[in-house]
Write a structure and sequence with these properties.
349 residues, alpha+beta, 11 strands, 30% helix
Length: 349
């Protein structure tokens, strides 16, 4: 019998022999290529019999080693197949078949009946008579009030200050126990066209309320992935006072069209292109990504972009008719996860 120290260190002589035998590659069976034996090929790739899973290997180190080799072999096979296909396409030249379009959740989206057709007369009539018609007819100019939840903390305050440098003619007001229903009449009396409220939880911004004045509508968003200017790597210098351009992407349904018009009404009509600044609201799978960039002209043909910040992501929770009224307000749309999120390929904006 081996001493106790030897057994505890290596499991005894028998354990050492079994471990050494396990590390050695197995010889292929007679008439076979070694794949059926579950061994290792001379090239170092793992070969498993049909239906065998790496998780069946009990030894953790051995299992990790075999899985790593299997991943390397798969990567080599994919690269070789890609090179072969590229050579075949170059040989065929113009006769080569078109590249297949990869399947994604976005291009496999379930068709929505409310998708907006620009030539639809009903859509044109709604746009001419909705709450934003005065803005798009250039009868009013935007004037924005940005405020916070009651007694905000530093991160929320800095986000409001940076947001005021992005949106022209915007004013920041810090609440001190004043109810939102009392703020709205004061905003209307001072000719504000929109009210933005940044909510926070545990000193972190987590919500945004956008209310169009004086007749609504009011949208409530969940806010996440907030990054202030100092937290963005390789950011540019602070933005100038030039009026930025605005880009709205993928707001295709009637609901998305309304949300896009709400964002558009925050910015003046005539952007100052000399400032080379652009604000982007990009909708992807019902998540609205906000980015603020500056164009960098490297040459006559090459153009780059430089992020200025801040950045954040919005998720629509509800759309309410009229101004903010959490008790008696009438809602046009409310997000209900259990009823609406039944398919990953169905989106609402």
């Amino acid at each position: 019998m081996a001493p106790a120290g030897e057994r505890s260190a290596g499991g005894g002589k028998r354990g050492l022999k079994r471990r050494a035998a396990a590390e050695e590659p197995r010889e292929p069976a007679a008439g076979g290529d070694g794949a059926a034996e579950g061994g290792v090929r001379p090239g170092g790739a793992a070969a498993f019999p049909p239906g065998f899973s790496v998780s069946e290997i009990k030894n953790k180190q051995r299992r990790h080693l075999m899985f790593t080799r299997w991943k390397q072999q798969r990567r080599k096979e994919k690269l070789a197949a890609k090179k072969k296909l590229k050579k075949e396409r170059e040989a065929l030249g113009d006769k080569a078949p078109p590249k297949p379009v990869p399947k994604t959740i976005d291009n496999q989206r379930v068709y929505d009946e409310t998708t907006v057709d620009p030539t639809d007369e009903e859509v044109a009539y709604d746009e001419a008579t909705d709450e934003f018609a005065s803005y798009f007819n250039r009868q009013t100019s935007p004037k924005i009030l940005i405020t916070t939840s009651d007694r905000p903390h530093g991160r929320t305050v800095r986000l409001c200050e940076q947001l005021s440098t992005v949106i022209p003619d915007s004013h920041v007001y810090y609440r001190r126990g004043l109810a939102l229903k009392k703020i709205i009449p004061q905003c209307i009396a001072r000719d504000f066209t929109d009210l933005i409220v940044i909510n926070e939880d545990r000193k972190t911004p987590n919500g945004l309320i956008l209310s169009h004045l004086p007749n609504g509508p009011t949208a409530h968003f969940k806010m996440s992935s907030v990054r202030l200017r100092k937290e963005i790597k390789r950011r540019g210098k602070d933005p100038t006072e030039h009026v930025p351009e605005i880009i709205l992407n993928n707001f295709t349904t009637r609901l998305g069209h309304s949300i896009g018009r709400m964002f558009a009404s925050l910015f003046p009509h005539n952007p100052q292109f000399i400032g080379r600044q652009v604000a982007t609201f990009h909708n992807q799978r019902d998540y609205i990504f906000f980015r603020f960039h500056r164009y960098i002209f490297k040459s006559e043909k090459k153009v780059g972009i430089q992020e200025l910040g801040p950045r954040f992501t919005l998720k629509l929770r509800s759309l309410q008719k009229g101004t903010f009224d959490s008790k008696y307000g009438e809602y046009e749309w409310v997000h209900k996860p259990r009823e609406m999120d039944t398919s990953r390929r169905k989106f609402h904006l």
